[in-house]
Design goal:
By secondary structure, the chain is mainly beta. The chain contains one helix and 26 strands.
């Protein structure tokens, strides 16, 4: 994805200069400024040996070096192919514009847009109108406006951006106010109302800022991050989520005001466990909780489920740190250390 716009634009600009042209018919004329203009009609082919532009018709300005191509425009250079209804090159401004069902293909990466404009001096390119980019490393990115920055090596998407990745039967969907992709690093950043959902895994998160490290299947969430699933909800100031290749969570780390709950759905009604601490670390096995470590003013409150739910049993423990072990999603052991206190109560009983 990094090279898609840059390769297209750089080779096309480099190709303007010494070139050969063929067409079914060519008509020359002079402009008011006495510049020779050549109109090309039918099966137009312009090439410098490395870059080839074909179209149904075109016009070349001899002195300025400007050119336009109309209808069924195709650009071929190295591994890249571009198609559009119209292409304009303004040499003095160093600007190339492709409009009308633009498609740029480089290997397995494809960019579609209503318009693509490249600015040679700044090394930037814009794509607008139903922008879609697909590729093996990014999945499918959609938006209404995109900015490619050669120096940053990034693609910035705004106006309703959506990232979708599908692997097998699992899907990952990221939405935000703005997204920026760094393809060489396989890194994506989402800014403003950033959300991640995995419908197949019943997984949803929300934060103000999000970073996704594709090579590690790792998310970092900043700004009141929240994670929820059918039987769990977590929140804090900062959160890190690591995924298995299957899409199941491998671990979750929460820093700063960690709190949340998880349910034991193996009984009816489910048992409930609520927690709060300064830090929390969750380890998973096959998508199910395996252990939880709470540190810093840790509090754990457990409400019994199943038959014991009718007695409204409640067990609350506090300490500097707590370790919770699970088996088949059920709490099996709780170890509390440092200034340990606790209470137990049930319906009709005394603490």
């Amino acid at each position: 994805m990094n090279s898609l716009l840059f390769v297209f634009c750089s080779v096309l600009v480099a190709g303007v200069g010494v070139f050969t042209t063929t067409a079914d018919r060519a008509v020359s004329r002079d402009t008011d400024s006495h510049e020779l203009v050549i109109d090309l009609i039918g099966n137009v082919v312009v090439t410098d040996g490395e870059v080839t532009v074909t179209s149904d018709s075109g016009t070349v300005w001899q002195e300025s070096g400007n050119a336009v191509f109309y209808s069924n425009v195709t650009v071929e250079a190295d591994t890249l192919t571009g198609t559009s209804h119209y292409l304009e090159y303004i040499k003095e401004a160093g600007m190339i514009t492709m409009t009308g069902s633009v498609i740029l293909t480089d290997g397995e990466t494809v960019l579609e847009a209503g318009e693509v404009v490249y600015f040679r001096e700044s090394g930037k390119a814009t794509a607008r109108e139903n922008v879609i980019m697909t590729g093996p490393r990014i999945g499918r990115v959609e938006g209404q406006y995109a900015l490619y920055d050669r120096d940053r090596g990034s693609l910035f998407i705004t106006v309703d951006p959506v990232l979708r990745r599908v692997e097998g039967e699992d899907s990952l969907v990221v939405t935000a106010d703005r997204m920026e992709f760094f393809p060489d690093e396989n890194l994506a950043e989402a800014q403003g109302n950033a959300s991640v959902s995995m419908p197949g895994k019943d997984f949803y998160s929300m934060s103000e800022y999000l970073r996704y490290f594709g090579n590690e299947d790792r998310f970092e969430l900043f700004g009141s991050p929240m994670l929820e699933s059918e039987d769990m909800e977590l929140s804090g100031d900062w959160m890190e989520i690591l995924l298995e290749s299957s899409g199941d969570p491998r671990s979750i780390r929460v820093e700063g005001g960690a709190s949340g709950y998880f349910l034991d759905t193996g009984v009816d009604p489910p048992a409930e466990t609520w927690f709060s601490s300064e830090r929390a670390f969750f380890a998973f096995e096959n998508g199910e909780p395996d252990s939880v470590m709470l540190a810093g003013s840790a509090t754990l409150r457990m409400k019994s489920g199943g038959e014991a739910a009718s007695r409204n049993e409640m067990n609350t423990v506090r300490g500097n740190s707590l370790r919770i072990s699970f088996e088949n999603g059920e709490v099996m052991e709780v170890i509390v250390t440092g200034h340990v206190t606790g209470t137990y109560s049930y319906l009709g009983g005394n603490p």
